[in-house]
Amino acid sequence: MTLKNPYFHQSFINNRASFSLREHKKYNWHSNDNGCFMNQWKLPFLNTHQRKKKACIVGCDTKCIKTMMVSSHGNTKTHKVKVIVAVKKCSGGGILSNFLSECVDGIKQLIGNILVLELVSVDLDQKTNLEKKTIKGHAQGVEKKERGVQYECTFELPSDFGNVGAVLVQHEHHKEMFLRSIVLHDVPYGPVHFTCNSWVQPKHDCPVKRVFFSDKSYLPSQTPCGLRRLREVELMLLRGNGEGERKSYERIYDYDVYNDLGDPDFSIDLKRPILGCSEHPYPRRCRTGREHSIAGDRFFWFSDEEFARETLSGVNPYSIQLVKEWPLRSKLDPEIYGPPESAITREIIESQIIGYRTVEEAIVEKKLFMLDYHDLFLPYVSKVREIKGTTLYGSRTLFFLTKQGTLKPLAIELTRPIMDGKPQWKQVFTPASHSTDLWLWRLAKAHVLAHDSGYHELVNHWLRTHCALEPFIIATNRQLSTMHPVYKLLHPHMRYTMEINSLAREVLICANGIIEISFSTNKYSMEISSVAYDQLWRFDLQALPNDLIHRGMALEDPNAPQGLMLTIEDYPFANDGLLIWDAIKQWVTEYINHYYSNSSVVKSDQELQAWWTEIQKVGHGDKYKEPWWPSLETPKDLIDIITTIAWIASGHHAAVNFAQYTYGGYFPNRPTIARIKMPTEDPSKEEWENFLKNPEQTLLECLPSQIQATLVMVILNLLSNHSPDEEYIGQYMEPSWAENQTIKTSFERFNKRLKEIEGIIDSRNGNYNLKNRCGAGLVPYELMKPFSGPGITGKGVPYSASI
Length: 803
Description:
The chain is of the alpha+beta class. Among the domains are: about 60-230, PLAT/LH2 domain (Lipoxygenase-1); about 300-450, Nuclear Transport Factor 2, Chain: A. It has 25 helices and 22 strands. It is globular and about 105 Å long. The two termini are about 70 Å apart.
């Protein structure tokens, strides 16, 4: 067959091996709308030998596209074969996802590559004694029926091709397809049927072509030569190799014992024996190739273990502290707030601390830890409770350090002060197995989590980073020239902070802003933040080593890394944070020592001294006379001050910010508000009966409302995002630093050390002995990894508090 002006349909650009044209001819390239895309089009991807072997003609029709393959083996005759593929109509998925899928598939259908079929001969090539080349074509959906879609494809089958014994199928549909059958019509030896009844995955999921054999049966020894290899390969694919995790598209049939009946990761009570061994003989099941440990646990947040773990490696690792004294007492005025003694008694604790006879012994051994939100929140309980839809308690939560290095919650104390003519109310809740006590414990945890969320956002995040940094930024711009080396050192740590603080005052912390709407402390939120600044904030304690020592979480030890020995060895935030702190301090030390060789240079620097004085007198003027302000007389003084400022803006902020959506996006894990009081506090008969009847409903009524939860999720998503232009600590050199070879070399060492820290953190997250950061269902602790890409990554330490 010869053509003076052959035409191509564009669908064949994706099927280069299925056609060729004679050399040195002119061709036209057409689309369905008869528009000419390109003239004088050549096929450089086909070599000369290929071009001589085949030729192809494609007819274009507005309703369907039919492929016709023409052999060019001399005068070999051909006959047309019509192939009909029946595809089951599949349901499932949302309206939007189905609509998008149909759009994608419609585009692919236009370019003719929705379903690719290859006919396989039962015979070998007589000349080569190898399998004959398959004949390929593209099928199109031409008729929609009630039960599915019918696809058609027309082939030009050479007379010497032999019988068709198999069909290879591959599709570029957006979703998997269920093939019912394939039927070849108009063949000399009658219709050939291929019963499929099988899912075929998209090419992008499973690049291996599916093979379907005809309905004719063969013993292995009787298998036609052209099908023997395909038969063996298909069986190998179905057997698998007995290794790895099964993918959704795989069709592997393998054996395994019944080792998936229990769930000991969730509860030891759910541990079950393996069936299929000498001790418990049992038939084998089909191997699923599941992961050895689950990647995530939908209900792990509900566990006491996760509740405790997040105090060390969650979004608020700054509140946990060592219990140093017993009994626990409030420092508030008992005439106003009631008896100062804690209701957490010796008996409550000693019944749970295995291996220690007394509370005093556990305290000496540094085994008791606490979240203490009692004295800060208790004065505001009465005020907050005047607001509809929220409530508040003063709270204490005690933890015990186990032999495994993890924390175990022991008790929660909730306190209501003297108010409304009622005496002080306080109650202690403990982990329990009885249903009533268990649900009360869960409710108590919800209240504590709301307290922790509020303290985290108002104090450890806003106050100690964004708010406290602003005076340093103002003074730096007012008192230090842009030529000053300290200005150049601090410049990247000031990026966008004042801008984001301004936005926070407009949206987050303003009257009736998101904080007031969504947090338990409501309109008293910023007032409580002020109390925390007055009672708790000290510049010297913002240095990470000093903070850890102050909370009893570390002791000075000159022989230990970073000069500290941690009270809890596996404290992910402290372990990783000290690496960042140490790297920052080394970089700052080399930088400062280059410009300040001795104390006289520091003392005589008028800009520097004015800067430090203004920070104390004006920026933090309400604390100007505090004795803990460090002096600025030596290079070491300056190094400590700059290191602390740089740490607050970078490591501290990263630790309390970039995991907010990870842990708080699912609001039951970190509720921002508790809306109702405990059912045991002055309960009415109806309230108590409702709790007993449906405790889960009581918990839901305590958690944030749908509006509150949705609002907080949106904000936490935004705050946890890294922008595409984020500047990470030590990643890129400031132009001014590159001007000086000594500073440039120091920065390069800084950058190299930060890259090493990334590797150290990855290694720690893979160490299953570190149970507070590695294990089934746990989120690995990556917040101190210096670098990150954009988006919500749960890692990356930017220079500044820029979000």
